[in-house]
Amino acid sequence: MRKEIVIDINPYQTRVVLLEDGLPSEIYIERRGKERLVGNIYKGRVQNVLPGMQAAFVDIGLERNAFLYAGDIVLDKGDFQFGEHTSAQKVDEVPNIKDIVRPGQDIMVQVIKEPVGTKGARVTTHITLPGRSLVLMPTVNYIGVSRRIDDETERARLKASIEDLKPSGMGLIVRTAAEGKSKEDFANDVAFLTRLWERIRQKGKMLSAPRLIHAEEQLMFRTLRDLFTPDIDRLVINDRAFFERIKVVAGIISPTLQDRVVLHEGLPDAFDTYKLENAIDKALCHKVWLKNGGYIIIDQT
What we know:
It is built from seven helices and 18 strands. It has about 300 residues and is an alpha+beta fold. Among the domains are: about 100 residues, Nucleotidyltransferase, domain 5; about 80 residues, no CATH class. The strands form four sheets. The chain has a five-stranded mixed β-sheet, with helices on both faces. Strands 4-5-6-9-8 form a five-stranded mixed barrel. A hairpin with a 5-residue loop joins strand 17 and strand 18. The chain is globular and about 60 Å long.
């Protein structure tokens, strides 16, 4: 299967499409001034606790308070709360929300769902920090391997490679991009992610709530981190400045990827060349026509 990434940058938005044998399989759009919140980490302050909903509303400094479900809370580590509190051990059963948090309590949360309509963002205290090869989970003592890596021998090798690299009391997940990587690669990723976590943790202690502590990467660099894996045959981009930056980053990630970055200049533009405009319009349309003449409507909730 031939896989390509096509990136279109203009003054209003950045669009990324992953192609598999010429057909769009994934589409990402980030508009200027409306960057996504998922992945952002905030120091928030609990505003309301609703036992009937098993949830709390947390002020994270946005227009609407964030929604925090009891099952998304772990307060058995001091780093995830600020001020006086009652510790609660994470258990399989969802604890009573009023036994975990209280109004006025400061708490570190990460956005897991964007605000929609009149609803605020959904947040969790289970922090995850993605790297190139690994994901660090400071709140969970766990080792896992991406399900997309299906070779059992490779899965066993990867798991063995990170067992003695895992920080005490934390968790690591091996990402799909890690397939074939060495233990040294993983050690570099762990060192970077643990330093990042320590900076976030210290910043959370110093700043007053509500405050943004850590912002997720912009779409361009999430693409390099999450999508530009060794099985990608080509990455096409229409912006020279970002082309030069991507070449540098790709060379650091893997020298074999650097030559796969291609600059598209002139007309027709990259999206017209790959006939992607209609594909994007269809993907974003909430009405999906069926072969029998009927249709279904998909709305975000």
